[in-house]
UniProtKB/TrEMBL annotation:
It comes from the Eukaryota. It comes from Oryzias latipes. Keywords: Secreted, Signal. This is C1q domain-containing protein. Transmembrane segments: none annotated. It is found in: Secreted.
Length: 238
C-alpha cells in the first residue's frame, strides 16, 4: 500500500513538472509571435532588428526567467506538500493496522443480579458466579460458571472485591487454573460488612482459566449495591 502511494506521488510530480514546462514554453512562443507580428506591422525589413526590439526581447527573457523561477519554487512547494501528505497517509495506515489488528477483550460483573444476603458457605471451595454483567467484550467470561477463559495469548489485568458477611467469615481467592494468585479475607473481629479488594497482572495462554473462588465453609454478603465484583481485560497480546 505504501509503495503504491509513493509511486503515485512520483508519477504526479513528473506530470505536474511537464505541465509547468509546457506553460513556460507557450509563454515564450507567444511572446515571439507578438514580436514577429509587431515587426510586420511596422514595416521592418526581413533580417533586421531595431534597438527597440532588442530591449523588448530582453524584457521578455527577464519576464520568462522570473516566471520560470516562480514555477520552480511552486514545484518545490508542491513536492514538499506531497511528501507531507504521503507521510500522513502512511501514519494513518499504520494506526488502522494497529487498531484493527489488536484483539479486544474486557469484562466486568457483579455477584448478584437480584436479591440480597449471604452466598455460602459450601462444603468445598467453589468458584463464585458473578451474574450481573456490566460488560463482556469478546465473550470470554461465562456467568454460568464464573470462569474467564482466555482466547488470546497475552498479558491481562484482573481485579476482584469482597464484602464480608455480617459475622466475619469471608475468604476469597483469585486463581489461574488451579494456581492460587492472591486473596482477600476477613475472619476476625466483631465488626461486619468490611470490604477489601486485590488485583494482579498476569500472562495467559489460550485456554487458561481465571476465576474467584470462595473457600470452603466461608461466605460473602451482597445486595443491589454490588459490593462484590470481578473484572479483567487484555493489556496487550503476546
Amino acid at each position: 500500500m505504501t509503495q503504491s502511494i509513493e509511486g503515485n506521488s512520483q508519477h504526479n510530480q513528473r506530470h505536474k513538472t511537464a505541465e509547468m514546462e509546457k506553460i513556460v514554453l507557450v509563454l515564450m512562443l507567444g511572446c515571439c509571435f507578438c514580436v514577429a507580428e509587431n515587426n510586420d506591422k511596422g514595416g521592418q525589413n526581413s533580417g533586421s532588428t531595431s534597438s527597440g526590439d532588442i530591449c523588448f526581447f530582453t524584457n521578455i527573457a527577464q519576464t520568462v526567467g522570473a516566471l520560470g523561477e516562480k514555477v520552480a519554487n511552486m514545484a518545490d512547494k508542491i513536492t514538499l506538500l506531497e511528501t507531507r501528505l504521503q507521510n500522513t497517509d502512511r501514519e494513518v495506515l499504520e494506526l488502522r493496522s494497529l487498531i484493527g489488528g489488536t484483539p479486544r477483550v474486557a469484562f466486568s460483573a457483579a455477584l448478584r443480579d437480584s436479591g440480597s444476603g449471604n452466598i455460602g458457605p459450601f462444603t468445598t471451595s467453589t468458584p463464585l458466579k458473578y451474574k450481573r454483567i456490566f460488560s463482556n467484550y469478546g465473550d470470554c467470561y461465562n456467568p454460568s460458571t464464573g470462569v474467564f477463559t482466555a482466547t488470546v495469548n497475552g498479558m491481562y489485568f484482573f481485579r476482584f472485591s469482597m464484602l464480608n458477611s455480617p459475622t466475619p467469615n469471608s475468604v476469597v481467592s483469585l486463581k489461574k487454573n488451579d494456581q492460587l494468585l492472591t486473596s482477600v479475607w476477613d475472619t476476625i473481629g466483631t465488626d461486619s460488612h468490611d470490604i477489601g479488594s486485590n488485583a494482579v497482572v498476569i500472562s495467559l495462554k489460550v485456554g487458561d482459566n481465571v476465576y474467584v473462588e470462595l473457600q470452603e465453609n466461608r461466605e460473602v454478603y451482597d445486595d443491589w449495591m454490588n459490593y462484590n465484583t470481578f473484572s479483567g481485560f487484555l493489556l496487550f497480546p503476546m
